């Protein structure tokens, strides 16, 4: 779907360029302008061609593709903004619009991509034991290590910001790597180990190795096992369709982690997904015990609550498509066209809460426009 949309936009840009520049009076200027426009319009085709020609998709190829796509946006979208106004004779307005679009794209690839946002929310429940009143949880999601431009600086900033919030525990909701286990290298391990609170995590669709092209030399299952092993080696507790119990005094609450099922990779954007690991994960978990559930994809929320669990469910996955228009509340994103729950907090009529974290990493293009990298601080409160 995304590839088809990109190719459609590329063809639309080429048609708009031809209609605009064919009116140029100078034939030489017209030829030069059309050649330059065609070269930039074809960048998505270059990205697709690179993917088809490469036997595998190592990190340098993925990064090059992402930056080429951003260059396409930065050269084509301002032109389209200009054409829209110039068509009605508003040339100066068109130039201002083009400059504004270009400036927004530059901000998105710089400060928008790296400036961490801390979202704070309180979740209140009468099912929460009194000893857990005030428990501070930090949620992280979707780091996508293979696409971080400056891992040393960005991961250090992330760990420092988490530690400054003084959480009792950190919950990571999947997509630690982008393509393969090797992205969780010694530098990333060393920097993520700086997080001081206990960390519990689940796997996401990028962690399971389904995006490795050369699966004969690099089997997906082997990459997934290595992703889990490296997390455990750095002290993170990976919850693989299982439940653990957090204890304070004589009280306890349940923390359940649902692994992403590789069989669902092609359905990852569907509004409804089968919850394949629920029965195994909740076996023996008492009904009525306060329940926190980590599920990478937010589409599982209703199935989790229908099973009688998930007083608090934490998800990621969507990133708000790294593009969000903020005008109050959660704002709007193209993600709203695909997902029922796509960003921020949702509460159902039974008092259960879902929080969809926007993540900190990037996929597809190295930019976040209005959807800044997010750390969520959740404080649990007991209420009647």
Rounded to the nearest angstrom, the radius of gyration is: 23 Å
As for the CATH topology of the largest domain, it is Purple Acid Phosphatase, chain A, domain 2
Reading the helices and strands in chain order gives HHHHHHEEHEHEHEEEHEHEEEE
CATH-level-2 architecture of the largest domain? 4-Layer Sandwich
N- to C-terminal separation?
46 Å
- Nearest-integer average pLDDT: 92
Number of strands: 12
* Classification by helices and strands: alpha/beta
Any idea how many domains?
Answer: 2
Largest sheet: 6 strands, mixed
Specify the CATH homologous superfamily of the largest domain.
Metallo-dependent phosphatases
Write up what this structure looks like.
There is one protein chain. With 384 residues, the protein is an alpha/beta fold. The chain has eleven helices and twelve strands. The model has no long low-confidence stretch (mean pLDDT 92). The strands form two sheets. It has a six-stranded mixed β-sheet, covered by helices on one side. Strands 6-7-8-9-11-10 form a six-stranded mixed β-sheet. Helix 1 (2-21) packs antiparallel against helix 2. The chain has helices at residues 2-21, 27-41, 43-53, 59-86, 91-109, 111-114, 151-164, 186-192, 220-233, 278-282, 301-306; strands at 117-125, 136-140, 169-172, 199-201, 237-238, 242-248, 251-258, 291-295, 312-315, 344-347, 353-356, 374-382. The protein has two domains: 2-109, no CATH class; 117-382, Purple Acid Phosphatase, chain A, domain 2 (4-Layer Sandwich), CATH 3.60.21.10. Helices cover 37% and strands 17% of the residues. Strand 6 (242-248) and strand 7 (251-258) form a beta hairpin.
